[in-house]
Design goal:
8 helices; 70% helix; globular
């Protein structure tokens, strides 16, 4: 893979960052409410605690948050955070009109990850 491959930097950060740092960055990109949704918690307080390192998300939530960061990071290479937030929450024609955030939250990351990443790459390519 070339260093110019779209999303490569976001992938590296999603893998190498500790979860507190990753959640903090994801919160800046997507907002606390969307991160809470992706992490399957009802309160943004949990997101703040994850970012502060005073609480650790469950293992399954960590997998989803790493995937979400990879996708968000790829999209922010071309778009502003408000566009990325809208993309995560909007019905996506490449995902059978399902919101990417919903797929990430409700699906198995190993199954939905490639589909969501492909949709994000397609969106970034036309942006």
């Amino acid at each position: 893979m070339s260093l110019n491959t779209p999303g490569l930097r976001a992938y590296e950060i999603s893998i190498r960052s500790d979860i507190a740092e990753l959640v903090g960055q994801l919160r800046e990109l997507l907002g606390a409410q969307l991160v809470a949704y992706l992490g399957s918690v009802t309160e943004t307080r949990a997101v703040r605690q994850w970012a502060d390192g005073t609480r650790k998300p469950p293992a399954e939530a960590i997998r989803r948050l790493r995937l979400a960061y990879q996708v968000a990071g790829l999209l922010t290479e071309r778009d502003q955070p408000r566009v990325v937030q809208a993309w995560f929450q909007g019905m996506n024609p490449q995902l059978e009109d399902t919101a990417p955030a919903r797929l990430i939250r409700e699906g198995n990351p190993d199954e939905v990850g490639p589909r969501v990443l492909a949709a994000a790459r397609a969106f970034a390519a036309v942006g």
